[in-house]
Amino acid sequence: MKKHNFSAGPCVLPQEVMKKASEAIINFNGLDLSLIEISHRSKDVVEVMETARSLALELLGLEGKGYKALFLQGGASLEFLMAAYNLLEKKAAYLNTGTWSSKAIKEAKMLGEIVEVASSKDANFNYIPKGYSIPEDADYFHCTSNNTIFGTQIKDFPKTNIPMVCDMSSDIFSRQLDFSNFDLIYAGAQKNMGPAGTTLVVVKEDILGKVSRPIPSMLDYRTHIDKDSMFNTPPVFAIYVSMLTLQWLKDLGGIPAIEKINEQKASLVYTEVDRNPLFKGFAAVEDRSSMNATFNLTDESHKETFDALWKEAGINGLNGHRSVGGYRASMYNALSVESAQVLVDVMQELERKAG
Ligand code: PMP
């Protein structure tokens, strides 16, 4: 039986996507060739790229609004630098909500002045700062929508007149947002899209071309736009799996449909975290992530029993990140409600055993 996979990323993907992807490795589109042994310029692969790009824009509600979708390499980590390379002339504003925001700030600092508008570092990033102001003379504002490690998520994005850049690596396609409020969105594929190896970049074209520095070809979004995301050999397999996952999401009813399922899973798990005296949540309640639920035991002496229980129940990937400790239940789009229920059952079983 398949494990209940709560891994933080790479993570669970839809079973039907896995099946189609594995078939394409053997015989892609009935060509009697594998997807990974044919030219990226072949008609069938170009079609995969085009479908993946247009599905991304369609699901985000950004078609016909001046945006381009790209599938690049280097992970979200390269986007920390690339965003700054393309947009930072003098000064940029960053909200620091955790490890990934801090890394984005570190890269951007190489290219200009960075104003940290607020940080929750004082409380080990267990909340999302609010009530900060964004300097209107900054070139852009950068934030991280979901903090994978700490289990916090921005619910209300600030209003600003400057371009808004968002790292949505761990919650893209999981909830309804007005995506047209963002000018640049990036996300590594390995949570809600596919295997590691490609990064989705959605960029509003009119924010580009405004910095004076020369931009190396591979780091210039315009290069990739001009070449339809095929400037160099793209990671075809990762993009194909992303395309299949986006198709799966569309068939399911898109973001509104998955959001309901995600809310159901999060509600199951957080209700138990709050009810069960053996557990306490890590993140501030109002900022809790619907993707990554972080929690700790109230009494560490139950650790051995709890770890044995969840492993016996077929749960995988529940250990918290080393900077938070405890547990992290990552509930990405492809995790079933049934898996969330199995976790809740195990938490209740611990209570019975400990009682
Ligand atoms: N941002 C966030 C929010 C992440 O969760 C991660 C990876 N877990 C990254 C950035 C870094 O992504 P990558 O490993 O694709 O560079």
Automatic annotation (TrEMBL):
Function of the molecule: Catalyzes the reversible conversion of 3-phosphohydroxypyruvate to phosphoserine and of 3-hydroxy-2-oxo-4-phosphonooxybutanoate to phosphohydroxythreonine.
NCBIfam families: PRK05355.1 (NF003764)
GO CC, any one term: cytoplasm
Catalytic function, reaction form: 4-(phosphooxy)-L-threonine + 2-oxoglutarate = (R)-3-hydroxy-2-oxo-4-phosphooxybutanoate + L-glutamate; O-phospho-L-serine + 2-oxoglutarate = 3-phosphooxypyruvate + L-glutamate
Modified residues (N6-(pyridoxal phosphate)lysine): K191
Pfam families, alphabetized: Aminotran_5 (PF00266)
Taxonomic source organism: Sinomicrobium weinanense
Positions that bind pyridoxal 5'-phosphate: A76, S77, W100, T148, D167, Q190, N232, T233
Keywords carried by this UniProt record: Amino-acid biosynthesis, Aminotransferase, Cytoplasm, Pyridoxal phosphate, Pyridoxine biosynthesis, Serine biosynthesis, Transferase
Similarity comment text for this entry: Belongs to the class-V pyridoxal-phosphate-dependent aminotransferase family. SerC subfamily.
Primary subcellular site in the record, as a coarse category: cytoplasm
HAMAP family: SerC_aminotrans_5
Molecular function GO terms recorded: O-phospho-L-serine:2-oxoglutarate aminotransferase activity; pyridoxal phosphate binding
Pathway: Amino-acid biosynthesis; L-serine biosynthesis; L-serine from 3-phospho-D-glycerate: step 2/3; Cofactor biosynthesis; pyridoxine 5'-phosphate biosynthesis; pyridoxine 5'-phosphate from D-erythrose 4-phosphate: step 3/5
EC annotation from Swiss-Prot or TrEMBL: 2.6.1.52
Protein's name in the database: Phosphoserine aminotransferase
Note on cofactor: Binds 1 pyridoxal phosphate per subunit.
Cofactor(s) this protein requires: pyridoxal 5'-phosphate
